[in-house]
Write a structure and sequence with these properties.
Layout (H helix, E strand, L loop, with lengths): L1 H21 L5 E5 L10 H9 L3 E5 L6 H12 L6 E6 L2 H8 L5 E7 L10 H7 L7 E3 L5 E4 L4 H5 L5 H9 L4 E2 H5 L11 E7 L7 H11 L2 E5 L5 H4 L1 H15 L2
Parallel strand pairs: 1-2, 1-3, 3-4, 4-8, 8-9
Antiparallel strand pairs: 5-6, 6-7
């Protein structure tokens, strides 16, 4: 009898601990930037979130392949102490869809991002509903892609001050074609809560595509009138969504 009570008590204690971990407050934010830009573009949003009490880390993935970028994200996730909200912008949405399986991840936030289902690639999704901009060019070796610097401000960051947009154009991170053509495996959003920001003035990803992907995933959707660089032009609004997601992910 004592043994049965002891076993029951252990099982109950384990359940309570598991529930507490699941309901723990989410204070860690890991951000995966998109292609053609780097993590420093998230500085304004990061500073806002830190002032609100969050611990923010930005992944500087190489964009050499989807597998490389998922591995880079997992290395950062392994450094987190406690539940973490995983945020992805643009191509970063492809990355977090698989990296989100990490046990550290409590929820996913897609910011003007691709939100693929199993077997889908960035190129396949982008061609399903073409956007209005993106003057994409190939490097001479045919392995990497970039935006024509002259077209970058209008295509990527039309609502940023011109000097900021021009700097982004000069500092853009070239993306391997292999990363854009890779197909994802089982999406983490099937099993975890997700939120999505649709940038309604986006010329890099068709806003209708952003909306359709988010609805398909059952994500909580917020629409913001902004360019593809919504995280930089509307950092307060983006931080608001991330903060709300962190609170709801911990419930």
């Amino acid at each position: 009898m004592k043994r049965r009570i002891s076993t029951f008590a252990l099982a109950l204690a384990t359940s309570v601990i598991a529930f507490a971990a699941q309901a723990a407050e989410v204070k860690n934010i890991v951000i995966v930037h998109g292609a053609l830009a780097d993590g420093s573009t998230w500085r304004k949003a990061t500073e806002i979130l830190e002032k609100r009490g969050f611990n923010v880390t930005i992944v500087q993935q190489p964009i050499t392949s989807l597998a490389d970028d998922i591995a880079a994200t997992n290395r950062v996730l392994d450094l987190q102490d406690g539940p973490t909200l995983l945020v992805g912008h643009s191509y970063g949405g492809m990355v977090i869809t698989e990296a989100g399986h990490s046990p550290h991840v409590a929820g996913l936030v897609y910011v003007a991002a691709f939100q693929p289902d199993k077997g889908e690639s960035l190129l396949g999704l982008a061609s399903s509903k073409p956007a209005g901009g993106m003057n994409i060019r190939e490097t001479k070796d045919g392995k990497y892609l970039y935006i024509d610097p002259a077209a970058f401000p209008g295509d990527f960051a039309a609502d940023l001050p011109k000097d900021e947009a021009r700097f982004l154009a000069r500092s853009q991170v070239f993306a391997a074609k292999e990363a854009f053509s890779a197909k994802v495996g089982d999406p983490a959003w099937h099993a975890k809560k997700s939120w999505s920001i649709v940038a309604t003035e986006d010329r890099s990803i068709n806003p209708a595509l952003e909306r359709d992907m988010a609805r398909r995933a059952g994500s909580d959707i917020t629409e913001i009138k902004a360019s593809h660089a919504v995280f930089a032009s509307q950092p307060e609004k983006v931080a608001d969504v991330i903060e709300r997601a962190a609170k709801q992910a911990g419930e």
